[in-house]
Amino acid sequence: MVSLGLVGLGRMGFNMRERLRAAGHTVVGYDRNAEVSDVASLEELVGQLDGPRIVWVMVPAGDPTRQTVLELAELLGEGDLLIDGGNSKFTDDKRNAEILAGHGVGYLDVGVSGGVWGKENGYGLMVGGAASDVEKAMPIFDALRPDGPREEGFSHAGDVGAGHYAKMVHNGIEYGLMQAFAEGFELLEAAKVVNDVPAVIKGWQRGTVVRSWLLDLLVRALDEDPELDDLEGYVEDSGEGRWTLEEAINNAVPAPVISAALFARFASRQQDSAAMRAVAALRNQFGGHAVRKVGG
């Protein structure tokens, strides 16, 4: 069993702490929310860990992660290990690793998938970093990953940055899959010949080539709200889809499905699209097609 510090006890971090403790590991958690935190500061967290110390960071990407890494670099020492399990951009990992190396601290970047269901089902883990550091953290990874063969829920993707790169591509694929299910749902809703859309989608869960966990989650949502009328069609993106497209461009890899899914999210945030107003105007100009006037 290992002693682990866990920084960031939000939706995923909180459940990860519970899953690790259930596996017998000692976990000291820190969060700015005192109601869920085990300690009052990062300094206190590090002080409670046995050496060599391992600290797993689960805070928002960007400045929050950078500041946390800088602070922990001053608190950790030779032979310790820091793991960034948030959704950091892979280009940040080399810089973090270099800062920590100056203090004799190892670094792993871990893409984590599983959402709020990870506590029960386990988390898919994609790891970047040195093999020796991966081996040091393997008891933690084995506790977090799903039950079954290790290779089905865990991968050592490569050197520093590879874990977050793999998670970025994973999330880009996720965008496309969700968009495909969403468009299928809308088409079924629009069809006059289909009387029970939730029943059709639920029927896809067994024996079909589109069965998946995402499909199961869509069925769950439809069980709660058969026409999804309680929701607004406004969808944010957390960054990974954009980064995936940047990498597709940098590597000249066609990614039309992922790009269309990302742009569909952008479209969902427009109350009134200037682009579509222009399309309506053009159709009216060249073909005399009817347009809807504001207030008409």
Automatic annotation (TrEMBL):
Domain (6-phosphogluconate dehydrogenase C-terminal) ranges: 163-296
Q: Which UniProt keywords apply?
A: Gluconate utilization, Oxidoreductase
Lipid biosynthesis: is it a keyword of this entry?
Answer: no
Q: Name one GO molecular function term.
A: phosphogluconate dehydrogenase (decarboxylating) activity
What's a single GO BP term from this record? pentose-phosphate shunt
Stored Gene3D superfamilies: N-(1-d-carboxylethyl)-l-norvaline Dehydrogenase, domain 2 (1.10.1040.10), NAD(P)-binding Rossmann-like Domain (3.40.50.720)
The answer to whether the entry has keyword Oxidoreductase is: yes
Q: Which InterPro entries match?
A: 6-PGluconate_DH-like_C_sf, 6DGDH_YqeC, 6PGD_dom2, 6PGDH_C, 6PGDH_NADP-bd, 6PGdom_BS, NAD(P)-bd_dom_sf, Pgluconate_DH
Give the similarity note.
Answer: Belongs to the 6-phosphogluconate dehydrogenase family.
What NCBIfam families does its record include?
gnd_rel, PRK09599.1
- Provide the protein name: Decarboxylating 6-phosphogluconate dehydrogenase
Q: Which organism is it from?
A: Amycolatopsis suaedae
The organism's lineage? Bacteria, Bacillati, Actinomycetota, Actinomycetes, Pseudonocardiales
Gene name, per UniProt, is gnd
